[in-house]
TrEMBL record:
<protein>
    <recommendedName>
        <fullName>Homoserine O-acetyltransferase</fullName>
        <ecNumber>2.3.1.31</ecNumber>
    </recommendedName>
</protein>
<feature type="binding site">
    <location>
        <position position="249"/>
    </location>
    <ligand>
        <name>substrate</name>
    </ligand>
</feature>
<dbReference type="GO" id="GO:0019281">
    <property type="term" value="P:L-methionine biosynthetic process from homoserine via O-succinyl-L-homoserine and cystathionine"/>
</dbReference>
<keyword id="KW-0012">Acyltransferase</keyword>
<keyword id="KW-0028">Amino-acid biosynthesis</keyword>
<comment type="similarity">
    <text>Belongs to the MetA family.</text>
</comment>
<keyword id="KW-0808">Transferase</keyword>
<dbReference type="InterPro" id="IPR033752">
    <property type="entry name" value="MetA_family"/>
</dbReference>
<comment type="function">
    <text>Transfers an acetyl group from acetyl-CoA to L-homoserine, forming acetyl-L-homoserine.</text>
</comment>
<dbReference type="GO" id="GO:0005737">
    <property type="term" value="C:cytoplasm"/>
</dbReference>
<keyword id="KW-0963">Cytoplasm</keyword>
<feature type="site" description="Important for substrate specificity">
    <location>
        <position position="192"/>
    </location>
</feature>
<dbReference type="GO" id="GO:0008899">
    <property type="term" value="F:homoserine O-succinyltransferase activity"/>
</dbReference>
<feature type="binding site">
    <location>
        <position position="163"/>
    </location>
    <ligand>
        <name>substrate</name>
    </ligand>
</feature>
<feature type="binding site">
    <location>
        <position position="192"/>
    </location>
    <ligand>
        <name>substrate</name>
    </ligand>
</feature>
<feature type="active site" description="Proton acceptor">
    <location>
        <position position="235"/>
    </location>
</feature>
<dbReference type="Pfam" id="PF04204">
    <property type="entry name" value="HTS"/>
</dbReference>
Length: 305
């Protein structure tokens, strides 16, 4: 079954051009099925790009998903038209009135700031707390993973000497977990960050399970509460050209920008990126939706606790 998306969401037309089957609300209402309800708290500056990246991955499942987008009252996006936000996003206070089968919280360009100094930390903390009893399973991505680990489990973040930027090999540490069903012994994950969480802090916490890591980029994925929470330090959702755009944007503005590693063919910026993470990204999101959302969520969504 396809995704159920708001009418006129830009991602619908963009993904149809990629031959991905999506469904707008008008058509979905004619199908007799309860879709899984997924809410996305999109903190990334380029909202439409992130919407498209996530919808592309969520579409690769036989289940019908109803995707909604959440925004913060305490922060006004600078890079997305107000009209788009008004049409497709709702405040937390409105969406918090119901339960959700799954939730995705994205990264944000605030990683070098202490968490408490982020202007929307108070509202975000409220959302983190709410999700525990109103969402079956939550994916925290990049900065959100660091923020969630800090808020829920007191895990600190540390500044890196240089930006972790490029494509890094990850190794599943518990390949028997359903989240890794169909995975190879190694998979690639895009990284783009100036801070890190450390392995020793994760393994010292009895509530957390380190499930993938890398000798080069460190902690990759952490699981908590039996799969009700996943913390992913990288960006498996990234499109093929995202790191290229980021590099070329920053290379002309900052002197400390290095070329993303293991990304361009032949490690030559004049060449096209070599995409090595797409298959595992699709697998991970499909496994999450199937085994940790669909298989675990109650039939009556009001029963989520």
């Amino acid at each position: 079954m396809p995704l159920r998306l708001p009418d006129k969401l830009p991602a619908v037309d963009l993904l149809k051009k990629e031959n991905i089957f999506v469904m707008d609300e008008s058509r979905a209402h004619r199908q007799e099925i309860r879709p899984l309800k997924i809410v996305v708290l999109n903190l990334m500056p380029l909202k439409i790009t992130t919407e498209t990246d996530l919808v592309r991955l969520l579409s690769n499942t036989p289940l019908q998903l109803e995707v909604n987008f959440m925004k913060l009252r305490s922060h006004t996006p600078k890079n997305t038209p107000v009209e788009h936000m008004m049409m497709f996003y709702k405040d937390f206070d409105e969406l918090a009135k119901q339960n959700w089968d799954g939730m995705i919280i994205t990264g944000a360009p605030v990683e070098q700031m202490p968490f408490e100094e982020v202007e929307y930390w108070g509202e975000l903390s409220k959302i983190f707390s709410w999700a525990r009893n109103h969402v079956t399973s939550t994916l925290y991505i990049c900065w959100a993973a660091q923020a969630g680990l800090y808020y829920h489990y007191g895990i600190p973040k540390y500044p890196l000497k240089k930006k972790m930027f490029g494509i890094f090999r990850q190794y599943p540490l518990m390949p028997e977990l359903p989240i890794f069903r169909g995975f190879d012994d190694v998979f690639s994950m895009p990284q783009s960050r100036h801070t890190e969480v450390r392995r020793e802090d994760i393994v010292a916490n009895n509530h957390l399970t380190l499930i993938s890591d890398s000798p080069d980029s460190g902690v990759g994925m952490v699981m908590a509460r039996g799969g009700r929470e996943f913390f992913i330090t990288g960006h498996l959702e990234y499109a093929s050209d995202t790191l290229d755009k980021e590099y070329k944007r920053d290379a002309g503005r900052r002197g400390d920008v290095e070329m993303p590693v293991n990304y361009y063919r032949g490690d030559d910026v004049r060449n096209e990126p070599l995409v090595t993470w797409r298959a595992h990204a699709n697998l991970l999101f499909s496994n999450w939706v199937n085994y940790y959302v669909y298989q675990e969520t109650p039939y009556d969504i009001n029963d989520i606790r």
